[in-house]
Amino acid sequence: MARTRAWYLALGYDNPYVWAHYADVPFAPLKKPLAKSRVAIVTTAAPFQPGKGEQGPGAPYNAAVKFYRVYTGDTARDHDLRIAHVGIDRKHADLADSGCWFPLPALRRAVAAGRVGELAPRFFGAPTNRSQRHTLEVDAPEIVAGCLVDGVDAVLLVPNCPICHQTLSLVARRLEAAGIATVVLGAAKDIVEHAGVPRLLFSDFPLGNAAGKPRDAASQAQTLELALRLLESAPAPRTTVQSPQRWSAGSDWKLDYANPGRLSAEELARRRAEAEAVRVEARALRVATLGSDPEEALPRHKQGNPA
């Protein structure tokens, strides 16, 4: 949260975002053994959209592919989901292996091995609106209703960017209040714990790779297994387990993300102009999609129009 706040100030936005925070946390114990449970995934990744610009490895932030309504996908099919639309760690996170942020293949293997009873028939895509009210009043209830219709017993929620972590924390809270056990697989520990969730599996990895290391099936399988054990064993809400996996031998990679101190004045000016252009584009898309702009408490640019 501190890094994100400093980054927005450096970009010229002087209205710091107010992160969601709750003292009380709902908690729904797993009602069945996992071997008999139906498990769903909630993701913030976006379906690939041909013709809407770069969306793969090395792609810059792409507001054109950001989505603003809940979507679903058939878990019996493979899906090309990407994270070029979010503020992930573009220098260190892997954007080529979707298993790092969408653990459907690993979950299928867990079902085949009998570790999990069955996949839910569909997964859910959660929009990462910065409006907490819109998430709580519109998006989260839609996901909860869908999970209840699908007879879901437990949900894995995998966020990517800072706001994704808050969004899925709010969704997890609503699912738990409805009696559905959840675990957030996250890489932004402070945001999730600040919001207050029942279970968090924290991987100290670059933002965007919370489901495991790229091209490393063993890492992704271990990450999933830790999340499943947390579903089974958490004694109370606010239970956080940290994965023992390390991203690399050193920790210098952590200093690069959203760190204005590591950029030249020229590069920071370029990033500032780019961020403002994306903000304007994203706002137009929200209005076009939803009929209005639901986002609240957005940073406001010192020289620009208010969001």
Structural account:
GO terms for molecular function: oxidoreductase activity, acting on X-H and Y-H to form an X-Y bond, with a disulfide as acceptor. This is Glycine reductase. The structure is a single chain. This protein is α/β, with parallel strands linked by helices and 307 residues long. The protein has a single domain (26-244), classed as Rossmann fold, CATH 3.40.50.2300. It has 7 helices and 10 strands. The strands form 2 sheets. Strands 1, 3, 5, 6, 7, 8, 9 and 10 form an 8-stranded mixed beta sheet that branches. The chain is globular.
Can you give me a brief rundown of this structure?
By secondary structure, the chain is of the alpha/beta class. The chain is built from 7 helices and 10 strands. The longest helix is centred in the last third of the chain and has 26 residues, at 265-290.
Strand content: 5-15%
Reported by name, the CATH topology is Rossmann fold
Q: What is the rounded Rg? A: 18 Å
Task: State the CATH class.
Answer: Alpha Beta
Overall geometry comes to globular
Number of E strands: 10
Helix content: 25-40%
Q: State mean pLDDT (0 to 100 scale).
A: 89
| CATH level-4 homologous superfamily | Response regulator
Q: Briefly note the structural class of the backbone.
A: alpha/beta
GO molecular function: oxidoreductase activity, acting on X-H and Y-H to form an X-Y bond, with a disulfide as acceptor
Protein name: Glycine reductase
